[in-house]
Design goal:
The chain is mainly alpha-helical. The protein has 19 helices and four strands. Strands 1-2 form a two-stranded antiparallel ribbon. A two-stranded parallel ribbon has the order 3-4.
Length: 460
């Protein structure tokens, strides 16, 4: 059982980290930051039909949560695309905070130290990838944690068993990378079946079966994909170059690795040596984030956040399996919540929040510049012209966003008053683009867009 002092030690850390995450999520929502990358394309699809755009068969639950507010807005008659974009961002950025908070309430009063799992996900993994907007792995990881904790601590009553079945069913359609974690969830439920009776036993059996079937379905989608993209999505999301390079580092990942190494060493060394390790880890983490905040235009590499999109699910899988083993040995996360470890995690939470706010500020500047650009230009604007005008200093952040195909849907979405005058072309090296501006019939037919003023002149 967790002692009162253990809970006192962990509760402030959790709620502080959650509060910081909520602040950074609010900033992302207000600037519609989740329209970055595929987000703007998803939103135009939602606005076109007033319904969900479910591209990925393995991620139905995550995408429904992600798009739900925007779909509701479209069905209520909202036509302003920026407002719908804010609602889309509300779904993408708010659910991880909400689901992580629910994990706290899923825990009994004497088991609160198990919130360490969702806390690690919130501080170490999610900030490494959440700039990409449509990273369904983030929501999937939070769903997995919620289901796991419900099964471990709330599956002894009929109502709890029902909640476990619903949460597990959502996890079974959350993300293809959840395949191994679904097996952990199935095992967690199966080991409780023999000690249960009546409806609770039936509920746990259903949880184990649903999780096992979900893992099997994920395996099918990975092994026999609908397209090469589905298979590569899984492999890249799990094995992508998320650390980056010396010239394009993923600083949130590097900081998380430094903090994790510091926590491990602090636990192994104890005493004065543990405090020295904590100070060193905190100093390195602080230096990394100072470098990012000092020059975010050059230090933020959006492609690295995209490459890290499998990290939340991968880390969740590892930690749920570890906590399951700890529970069988009578240990709890409270045993590892020493002052040096808490200090390191706290410093990381603060640094990640500062980095997130810096990313949001860069995104807001980029959107402001692109909005002004498409309001004054006409016709098809070449990639070279857009780079010359919008990124004259060659900043990495803007360059990566302007080079990708997603600049096309975003330039449509930012048309002033929905009256499209210009469409920005992505880099000629881009292998796939959603629309052909020279063919107006290929453009998305969205109630909030007016193409009457768009003349598809040749690119300049």
């Amino acid at each position: 059982m967790d002692s009162g002092s253990d809970q006192t030690r962990l509760a402030p850390l959790f709620w502080l980290a959650l509060g910081l995450a909520a602040i950074t999520a609010a900033a992302a929502i207000l600037t519609a930051r989740d329209l970055a990358y595929d987000g703007s394309h998803y939103l135009l699809g939602v606005a076109s039909h007033g319904s969900f755009v479910l591209f990925e068969r393995a991620r139905l639950a995550s995408q429904i949560l992600q798009q739900g507010f925007a779909v509701a807005g479209a069905r209520l008659g909202i036509r302003d695309l920026w407002t719908l974009g804010v609602l889309f961002s509300l779904g993408a950025s708010a659910w991880p905070v909400i689901l992580t908070a629910l994990c706290w309430f899923a825990l009994p009063r004497d088991k609160k130290s198990w919130i360490a799992g969702p806390l690690v996900n919130l501080v170490f993994a999610i900030p490494a990838t959440n700039f990409i907007g449509i990273g369904e792995g983030i929501i999937a990881s939070c769903l997995l944690w919620f289901a796991f904790l419900l099964i471990e601590f709330r599956s002894r009553t009929a109502l709890g068993a029902i909640a476990c079945v619903i949460a597990t069913a959502a996890c079974a359609f959350a993300h293809e990378a959840a395949i191994l974690c679904l097996l952990v969830i199935s095992l967690a439920a199966a080991r409780r079946i023999s000690a249960s009776k009546g409806f609770v036993r039936v509920g746990l059996f259903l949880v184990a079966a649903i999780a096992l079937a979900g893992a099997g379905n994920m395996a099918r989608l990975i092994i026999v994909p609908r397209s090469v993209v589905e298979r590569s999505d899984f492999l890249v999301s799990m094995l992508g170059g998320f650390f980056g390079t010396p010239f394009a580092p993923n600083i949130p990942v590097l900081a998380s690795v430094v903090a994790a190494a510091g926590c491990l060493l602090a636990l192994l060394l104890k005493g004065r040596r543990a405090r020295v390790v904590a100070i060193a880890a905190i100093a390195i983490v602080a230096i990394l984030f100072v470098l990012l905040v000092d020059d975010p235009g050059q230090m933020i590499a959006p492609s690295r956040y995209f490459a890290a999109r499998g990290l939340p699910v991968a880390l969740t899988t590892l930690l749920t399996a570890l906590l399951l083993l700890l529970g069988r040995r009578g240990l709890t996360p409270a045993h590892f919540a020493t002052p040096p470890v808490i200090a390191i995690v706290l410093s990381l939470a603060i640094g990640q929040s500062a980095a997130q706010l810096a990313m949001t500020a860069e995104w807001a500047d980029y959107v402001r510049a692109l909005r002004g650009f498409v309001s004054t230009e006409t016709g098809i604007v070449s990639h070279a012209e857009a780079m010359r005008r919008l990124d004259p200093d060659g900043a990495r952040f803007r360059r990566e966003l302007l080079e990708g195909w997603t600049v096309e849907p975003l330039s449509l979405l930012l048309a002033p008053g929905g009256r499209v005058r210009a469409i920005v072309e992505p880099s000629p090296k881009e292998r796939w683009v959603p629309y052909d501006p020279s063919n107006p019939s290929s453009l998305p037919q969205v109630p909030g867009l007016d193409y009457s003023g768009f003349v598809p002149r040749p690119a300049r």
